[in-house]
TrEMBL record, chain A:
Keywords: ATP-binding, Nucleotide-binding, Transport. InterPro entries: AAA+_ATPase, ABC_transporter-like_ATP-bd, ABC_Transporter_VariousFunc. Residues 5-234 form the ABC transporter domain. It comes from the Bacteria. It comes from Pacificimonas pallii. The keyword Transcription does not apply. CDD domains: ABC_DR_subfamily_A (cd03230). One of its GO terms (molecular function) is ATP binding. This is ABC transporter ATP-binding protein.
From TrEMBL, chain B:
The keyword Metal-binding does not apply. The chain crosses the membrane at residues 20-40, 133-151, 177-199, 206-231, 237-254, 352-373, 451-473. This is DUF3526 domain-containing protein. Keywords: Membrane, Transmembrane, Transmembrane helix. It comes from Pacificimonas pallii.
Length: 239, 478
């Protein structure tokens, strides 16, 4: 069976600089894969390549077994993407933002669906009819997560999804992601939160200088050991 | 609802929310409405007035009492060119060339020999007419409205979100284009009203709506240029700067340059220079008032032989009239050849000017607009030719009366005393030789034919700019 996400010896050059260098991994259906790495390691670039925003200079990325460069539209149709900076319209309310982007995605949703998604990310009902300009960072992030949920795509690419969320919201978010994966959705997420990654992910990859330098899996039902990953992270950063 | 329409609708909501944009649109709408109404009033008055003046001038001519026919030749007559209905919108060269001319014997109207500079001032972008508002100010407003249309999404990071929803860049660009198109459609309303009004003044539907179509294509071409800049460039200040420069280039620099280049390329002699040459050649023809001028010896020999007589006194016709007709024909031939040469030069200048439409859509629309409205140089030239034919016709008809109906001896003796003067006249019924003159605009087909080249250039502008938008949007990067 083909994996929803696969990077094959992926290399990437951005403005003359090698950003990714021979990165290979697959994410299976229903799996949560978390990419860890220092600033500038190439995490966000990896996600952008899966979306076809960046073209590999070597190797290839496959979505549902199909090369992204071959059919960008198919890849984007299968993926819900949460960008690094939650960029929605400040002049629109949460409802308006969701309605607009879902319309563009060709997947319009009714008010009840929007409310259900916003409930899941715990955006206060009072805020939903306010313009995003007046939101806190975490509220904007929640709205963006709700958009990703509403797409109901088989694959989720999340770039620092917990950034800006308070501890309670982070826990709730992790539960949410696990539930989604349990429902068969495939998740590739990028994060700086080593503890969180170990809590939620089935597998953690360590990216450094554009190379995948480590991979940790949960063994027989246990969670990944945070200490081990943390140590590896610190050591490999120093190296 | 299709995504393209949705994007356009959101764009409109944003514009409506921005008071500045609404204010700007209102100001322009009012400006167009006011200039249109003002010019419409003026033209409607002038049009009626000119026809009345033409009729009045004819009636005064017909109503002249018994006179010496040559006095009527110098009494002269007026020809009026009523402004065509669409001059309401596009006065074109009318402002420069004038619309009435005086016709008399041995003289061609001065308009025929006006300084080329005036005629070559084909641009005439100076006056505030509805046409110049459409040609110059509306593109500027499109720039203000649209310079950040696409790049704003890039700046705010929403471009990535939009594209990540699976929407192709081309659809996003089409949505923005649709928003701009709706603005343009709104801008077209005053012009459509003017066109409809011109139809009630007698304009042909085809011409009126071709004018609307021409300006629509023009504004769409500008819209596409604006959109192309906002897709290709990443900073709004840069986009605004580049577009303002393009506007200056298209609306001011190229037209100025085109005027200079077209007069330089077609070397028209200055007025004084050509006047002197013409005068010298004119002298050689002899003075038609002086039948004894040696220049007419040859003619005299021929006419005497034709009637088989020895002296001019024996001729059955009035020799003075014969000379007047002969010299009028000679002189007219000479002046016509100069006038034709001058009009040929002006026409080629105008053609070269029109070619600069390839560098500036503003020139293309201005040329098309004049041609369709019937306020272009070609129409003015036809007026000059027709009024000259009118002049030559009535002057020669009077000269014929002079030759046939006024006795030579009486004519020669006309200055002896008052009684002699009174005898040297022909009956007023002779003045009926004047043809009624009504200058009519060219048919709509013909005007459209003249505008064809410029309309083609406009369409090419639209296709080129639109093509750039689509290609750039298809390969849009974050
Ligand atoms: N728009 C861009 N143009 C050119 N190079 C870029 C661009 N964005 C990032 N880079 C370069 O690509 C490399 C990887 O960047 P990337 O954003 O993928 O890192 P990251 O792992 O997501 O970092 P962070 O944790 O800070 O988000 C960096 O060296 C960065 O300088
Ligand atoms: Mg990043």
């Amino acid at each position: 069976m083909t994996s929803p996400l696969e990077a094959k010896s992926l290399s990437l050059v951005r403005e003359g600089n090698a950003v990714l260098d021979g990165v290979s991994f697959t994410v299976a259906r229903g799996e949560i894969f978390a990419l860890l790495g220092g600033n500038g390691a190439g995490k966000s670039s990896t996600l952008l390549t899966f979306l076809g925003f960046l073209k590999p200079s070597g190797g290839e990325v496959l979505v549902n077994g199909q090369s992204v460069t071959g059919d960008v539209a198919a890849a984007r149709g299968a993926i819900a993407y949460l960008p690094e900076a939650a960029s929605l319209y400040g002049h629109m309310t949460a409802y308006e933002n969701l309605d607009y982007f879902l319309d563009l995605a060709g997947k319009p949703a009714g008010r009840a669906d929007l409310d259900a998604a916003l409930d899941r990310v715990a955006l206060p009902a009072e805020a939903r009819t306010r313009r995003l300009r007046s939101y806190s960072k975490g509220m904007r992030q929640k709205t963006a997560i709700a958009l990703a949920l509403l797409r109901e795509t088989p694959i989720l690419l999340l770039d620092e999804p917990t950034s800006g969320l308070d501890p309670v919201a982070i826990d709730e978010f992790h539960d949410l992601v696990k539930a989604l994966a349990g429902g068969g959705q495939t998740v590739l997420m990028v994060t700086h939160d080593v503890y969180g990654a170990c809590q939620v992910a089935d597998r953690v990859g360590l990216l450094r200088g554009g190379k995948l330098v480590g991979s940790f899996s949960a063994a027989n039902g246990e969670r990944i050991d945070t200490e081990t990953v943390h140590a590896a992270f610190a050591e490999r950063q120093a190296a | 609802m299709s995504s393209v329409r949705r994007i356009a609708r959101e764009e409109w909501r944003l514009w409506l929310r921005s008071k500045v944009v609404v204010a700007a649109a209102l100001i322009v709408a009012v400006l167009i409405a006011v200039t249109s109404i003002l010019t419409a009033n003026r033209i409607a008055n002038e049009q009626a007035q000119r026809v009345e003046q033409q009729v009045a001038a004819e009636q005064t001519f017909f109503a002249q009492p018994d006179r010496h026919p040559h006095r009527m030749v110098h009494y002269g007559h007026y020809a009026f060119r009523p402004p065509p209905p669409l001059a309401v919108f596009e006065p074109g060269v009318d402002a420069v060339t004038g619309q009435s001319i005086f016709l008399e014997g041995h003289r061609q109207n001065t308009a025929m020999f006006a300084d080329t500079k005036a005629a070559a001032d084909l641009g005439g972008f100076a006056a505030l007419t509805p046409a110049s508002l459409y040609q110059l100010f509306l593109p500027l407003l499109l720039i203000v409205l649209g310079h950040a249309l696409f790049l704003r999404e890039r700046e705010s990071g929403t471009l990535a979100v939009i594209l990540a929803q699976g929407l192709p860049g081309t659809k996003l660009a089409l949505g923005k284009a649709a928003a701009l198109l709706a603005v343009i459609a709104m801008f077209m309303l005053p012009l459509i009203a003017v066109a409809a009004y011109s139809v009630t003044l007698g304009e042909r539907m085809l011409a009126a709506f071709s004018l609307v179509g021409g300006y629509f294509v023009y504004l769409c071409a500008w819209g596409a240029i604006v959109l192309a800049a906002s897709v290709l460039l990443t900073q709004r200040a840069v986009s605004l700067g580049v577009l303002i420069f393009v506007w200056l280039f298209a609306a001011l620099i190229v037209p100025r340059f085109a005027i200079n280049a077209s007069s330089a390329a077609v070397d028209a002699p200055g007025k004084i220079e050509s006047d002197l040459i013409m005068l010298a050649e004119q002298r050689k023809l002899g003075d038609g008032h002086n039948a004894a001028d040696p220049a007419f010896m040859q003619l005299q020999a021929e006419v005497l032989e034709q009637y088989d007589v020895e002296t001019i006194e024996e001729l059955p016709i009035n020799w003075r009239g014969v000379v007047a007709a002969y010299s009028e024909a000679e002189l007219t031939d000479l002046l016509n050849s100069y006038a034709e040469e001058r009009m040929r030069l002006e026409a080629s200048q105008s053609r070269i000017f029109g070619l600069f439409g390839l560098l500036s859509p503003t020139i293309a629309v201005s040329s098309a607009s004049r041609a369709i409205a019937g306020t272009d140089l070609a129409t003015h030239h036809r007026f000059l030719r027709e009024s000259e034919a009118l002049r030559f016709g009535f002057v020669q008809a009077l000269n014929e009366k002079h030759a046939a109906e006024l006795d030579y001896a009486i004519d020669m003796n006309r200055n002896a005393d008052e009684a002699a003067r009174l005898r040297a006249r022909v009956n007023a019924s002779a003045w009926q030789v004047l043809d009624e003159f009504r200058f009519a605009p060219d048919g709509a087909d013909e005007r459209l034919g003249r505008a064809g080249g410029s309309l083609g250039i406009l369409l090419a502008w639209l296709l080129a700019a639109g093509g750039i938008v689509l290609v750039a949007a298809r390969r849009v990067r974050l």
